[in-house]
Amino acid sequence: MSGWTLTLKQAPALRLDLRALSPAALAGLSADAVAKFGVWHGNESVALGELFTITARTDDALHFEGDLSRADRIGWQLAAGRIHVDGPVGDYLGAGMSGGEIVASRDAGLLAACEMSGGRLEIGGNVGDHAASALPGSMDGMRGGTLLVRGSAGARFGDRMRRGSALVFGDAGDFLASRMVAGTIAVAGRIGAHAGYGMRRGSVVCAGTAPAIPPTFVTNDANIAVFWQLLARDLARHGGAFASLPARRVQRHLGDLAAGGKGELLLCV
């Protein structure tokens, strides 16, 4: 037994920075030591026991319960282990994670999965702007792993994304896959304006309503049947609207010609 359930006692007056909390950081600690573990509340370090009710678990997971919409950086740079959040979460969920698994049952704030390079992150609700993108001031977005968003995503989803798979089961906002370098994005619902703006490479699968094709993309009739079946079957294992992809055909549009034109928007028909 080394896991813990942390139940928020009440909404914090200031934002919490929980980057120091991980299954590895708390493994092997006594209940008293966990209660004294320091986290940031605004610019003040406070003991974890002042904010959360702490309960030992029979497994090795780290569970959060309560309204954590003012708690940022949960799962920051997670390398291994499991984190489950039963409630809404704040910004930077899973940012910089390289392994392990994070499951959040409800909505997440801004910048989720930024610079993620491995592992699996699942968000049960909606996610804010700049998910799977680059951190402010950085040049590289998501670089690996799998991101699943069961709800809808905000603007700039996958900005500067370089590798990995990111699936949105609902709608996606404006500037989807902007400045994308590589990797795969799939959206089951509607897509906002300017999809693929500045896109250099990578694939965007549009499984729902076809977006407006930007004027800097061109139709391509090359035979991609084998590639499409491999990609569609990989996406289909996530279920939902993606389960039927292997049985559908795609229209391919290459772009953004203003940035090299090696990316592709795949419209499912």
Automatic annotation (TrEMBL):
Molecular function via GO: formylmethanofuran dehydrogenase activity; transition metal ion binding
Enzyme class label: oxidoreductase
Protein name per UniProt: Formylmethanofuran dehydrogenase, subunit C
Classification via InterPro entries: Formylmethanofuran_DH_suC, Glu_synth_asu_C, Glu_synth_asu_C_sf
SUPFAM superfamilies the record matches: Alpha subunit of glutamate synthase, C-terminal domain
Record keywords, A-Z: Oxidoreductase
Gene3D superfamilies: Glutamate synthase, alpha subunit, C-terminal domain
Coiled coil: none
Annotated ranges, domain Glutamate synthase alpha subunit C-terminal: 81-203
EC number: 1.2.99.5
One GO term of the biological process aspect: methanogenesis
Highest taxon of source: Bacteria
